[in-house]
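Explain this one:

_____
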Amino acid sequence: MPRHQPGSSLRAARELYLEVTNDPSARPLVVASWQRSMEHKVPSGSLDAPYLDNPNLDSPLARAALPILDRLHEQLADDPVSIMITDRNGVVLSRKVSHEGLTTNLNRVQLAPGHVFAERYVGTNGIGTALASGRPVMIAGMEHYVEALRDFHCAAVPILHPTRRTLLGAFNLTTIRQGSDGMLMAFARSVAAQIEGEIAAITSRRERALFHDYMEACSSVRPGPVLALNRDVVMMNEQLSTAVTGPDHYALLDHAREIADSPRTEGTRSIALPSGRVAELRVSRCRREDSDAGAVFRVRLIGRPQQGPAVSAAPARSGLGLVGSSPHWLRAVADSQAAFVAGTSLHLLGEAGVGKRTLVEALHRAHGAGRRLETTQPPLSDAPAVTEGWLHDIGELLAVSSNVLVLRDVHLLGDQLRQRLRNLLTHLDGTATGQLVLTSQPSMVGTDDQLDQLCGALVEVPPLRHRPGDIEYLARFFLRKYRPSGESRFSPDALTMLQRCPWPENVRQLESVMRGLARRPSGPMIHAEDLPPECRVSSHKVLTTIEALERDAILRGLMDHNSNVQRTAQDLGISRATMYRKMRRYGIVPSSLT
């Protein structure tokens, strides 16, 4: 096939199509698809459909479609027709075919579960073109852009969400038998309609179940503000809609969605709202037929709205000199300070890197005059002699009134050692004179942990992603810390990128990024292109050192090659399929890099 430069006009695509197919009645839809294929630089002489491990079979689309595909497979036994379902990105979720010859041919062109048949990778084809155009399409024989696919006839129909009408995926029929394309398309349309109908039924059952639990909460003796939501629907009663407005409304929904997305989260959670109030959420899961239909929140609002802090050019600080004016952060600081000043034991709960140690050190500087700050953490060995010595040291330290003992990372304690620590603290209660501060990570600690019952205060330190307004202040603070002789500002695009970054390692990661920027020569303005690759990902996963190096190598390669996945994979010495697996793992979206 002749080579054409990307960005060729529609006329050039038509000329190429006529040159290859000798078909003067070229359909505009197909020619437009060939144009897109040329712009994506799809090689017509070879086929390379990326492969993704573990395609998502727990989506509403898959749950609705798979039983229908199973029934069709029985009806079409030994017929040379393949039926398959893909997600909206063109990933083949399931393929059903019982004809041995067709199976061999499909495997030869990688048209199998896990492979991606979007136009940008394999050019004009039934699946990719239906998804790109949003219309049912029949792509037969020479209409395929890639030569290897020209033996096939494919009828594909987009599948839309029944209420939102957003694209969920596509149903596809593929055969090598030449016959009535009209009949094949009619069959594909019929099956797609069945799948959409089943999605509507599943969605309706989930929403009815959630609505039932929501109404039950609203009709209780003292309902109060009630919120119910899942990924498709949000319901709130009038008490909540009138009590929570403006920024508080959006903050509450954001936290509630995060909680609802975690099926294991139940019980009571407290969150600070932008107005300064605290929302106490009592969470109940809505489960039906072994499926999670969402969550119902009974909301209790504590406190009165306060005037928000004025925006200033200088970093905002709490009374302890800690940077940040987010209500979530200020509430954690205030509650910790009250407990520390009162001399009661304190448990600081927060993800790694949120600033628990910094907070304890600030409390000690401000209110620990004449007191000694001691720190310990779980022993590395569970040998009896080691654990006995560790517990003995804790008892000795707490026996001294001038000591503040910080026991870090109690989530790492095993059940047996945790129980022995509880027994020790219970025995010391009333006799110990030193002050105890525990720190732990929330994902590791049960809400009914008995250690909490021995503490006078439990304070949750918010993650950085819940403090977007503090990111600029913190970034500027760390820049001045590591570059005291210079003054730098962030451009709007750089600041937006910093605020959108999920910061899985929290403030510790932001400080590391600013330390790296301070060591590099730069002008008075820091732009988005000056920020390191880790600021351009969407993954919340905390990476090992090796994983971070691999992620950064992929990001730099993509930026050097203008987001060209193929060339980046070649430079890194990996296959394109491996490249896509790693991009998905690290939350790398090529379109966000240009």
